């Protein structure tokens, strides 16, 4: 298997005078990948180019090492796609629709029916599989679209806003299903503007804004912080003075200190300051950073 799930070289795309993607360069390893950004950031355009639905205006892309512009059939054989929005045939049953999707992928009819039954069971629709899709709730429709995307056992599946329109319970069910896909050996690209969904399901993040890449890297690396919070019982002024002397930037609110350190381990600095001052410690821990913090900190803002 290739060590690159998705790649892009100077990728650009325009709809007339509207530029959707600006010379993207990407190298993304296999795994559970989050494609994040506000609506209009270029996420759906990128997915459509990866699927071969759109052709790049400039540049090129690769999916599992294959360029859809030169070998579209090979790419389509290896991917699944869950589109955004309700696009199901409402007069069909879930079993018939997912079976049809399996046959379209080249699976023989008898095996397609069994695969459809198995996948619908996996997504929690075993009892409802013979009901018409027009009678389904939004959550059931979303799970049906996920089922058709993975019924042919793809190597990678693209999920475009998979939790759109779901209530909190339905959202949690969908996120749990997405998290489980990795256990079946399926690479996942989740496109969403809901950053907490990406944090719950993915281990790599591509962050877009205005058609450009803001961040591309492992989730753990993006959300690691060089900021710690220290809560002391007393001697606050002494601890602040010692941390400052050691080169840290300190903010205090009551007995809680926020220490920011560049190019050093903040925990070691906090330990040394507490040892020097003898101040009794109540709590010490990293201040959590979220994808939303990163996005808001890096995305350009109108003045």
Tell me the Rg in angstroms.
24 Å
CATH H-level name of the largest domain... which superfamily? P-loop containing nucleotide triphosphate hydrolases
> Level of helix content?
25-40%
Shape: elongated
CATH architecture of the largest domain: 3-Layer(aba) Sandwich
Q: Class of the largest domain, according to the CATH hierarchy?
A: Alpha Beta
* Largest sheet: number of strands, sense, barrel closure: 6 strands, mixed
Instruction: Give the number of DSSP strands.
Output: 13
User: What is the structural class?
Assistant: alpha/beta
What's the number of domains?
2
Spatial arrangement of strands, main beta sheet: 5-6-7-3-8-9
Mean pLDDT: 89
Strand proportion, as a percent range, falls in 25-35%
The SSE string, one letter per element, is EEEHEHEHHHEHEHEEHEHEEHEH
Which ranges are low-confidence, i.e. pLDDT below 50, for 5 or more consecutive residues? none
State the end-to-end CA separation.
47 Å
* Count of helical stretches: 11
The CATH topology assignment of the largest domain is Rossmann fold
Can you put this structure into words, describing what you see?
With 303 residues, the chain is an alpha/beta fold. The protein folds into 2 domains: 214 residues, P-loop containing nucleotide triphosphate hydrolases (Rossmann fold, 3-Layer(aba) Sandwich), CATH 3.40.50.300; 62 residues, Reverse transcriptase/Diguanylate cyclase domain (Alpha-Beta Plaits, 2-Layer Sandwich), CATH 3.30.70. It contains 11 helices and 13 strands. β1 and β2 form a beta hairpin. The longest helix has 14 residues. The protein starts with 5 loop residues before the first strand and ends in a 5-residue tail after the last helix.
């Amino acid at each position: 298997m290739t060590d690159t799930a998705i790649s892009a070289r100077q990728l650009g795309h325009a709809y007339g005078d509207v530029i959707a993607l600006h010379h993207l360069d990407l190298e993304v390893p296999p795994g559970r990948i989050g494609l994040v950004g506000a609506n209009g950031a270029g996420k759906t355009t990128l997915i459509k180019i990866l699927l071969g639905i759109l052709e790049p205006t400039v540049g090129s892309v690769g999916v599992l090492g294959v360029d859809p512009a030169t070998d579209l059939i090979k790419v389509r054989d290896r991917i699944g796609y869950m589109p955004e929005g309700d696009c199901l045939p409402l007069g069909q049953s879930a079993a018939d629709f997912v079976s049809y999707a399996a046959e379209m992928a080249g699976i023989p009819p008898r095996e397609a029916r069994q695969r459809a039954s198995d996948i619908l069971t996996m997504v929690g629709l075993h009892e409802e599989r013979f009901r018409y899709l027009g009678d389904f709730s939004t959550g059931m429709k979303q799970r049906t679209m996920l089922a058709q995307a993975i019924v042919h056992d793809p190597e990678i599946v693209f999920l475009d806003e998979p939790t759109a329109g779901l209530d909190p319970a339905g959202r949690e069910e969908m996120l749990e299903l997405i998290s489980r896909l990795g256990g079946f050996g399926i690479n996942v690209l989740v496109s969403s503007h809901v950053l907490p969904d990406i944090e719950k399901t993915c281990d790599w993040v591509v962050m877009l804004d205005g058609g450009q890449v803001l961040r591309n890297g492992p989730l753990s690396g993006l959300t690691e912080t060089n900021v710690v919070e220290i809560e002391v019982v007393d001697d606050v002024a002494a601890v602040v003075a010692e941390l400052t002397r050691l080169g840290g930037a300190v903010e205090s609110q009551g007995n809680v200190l926020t220490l920011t350190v560049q190019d050093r381990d903040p925990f070691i600095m906090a330990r040394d300051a507490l040892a020097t001052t003898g101040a009794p410690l109540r709590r010490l821990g990293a201040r959590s950073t979220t994808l939303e913090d990163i996005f808001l900190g890096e995305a350009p803002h109108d003045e």
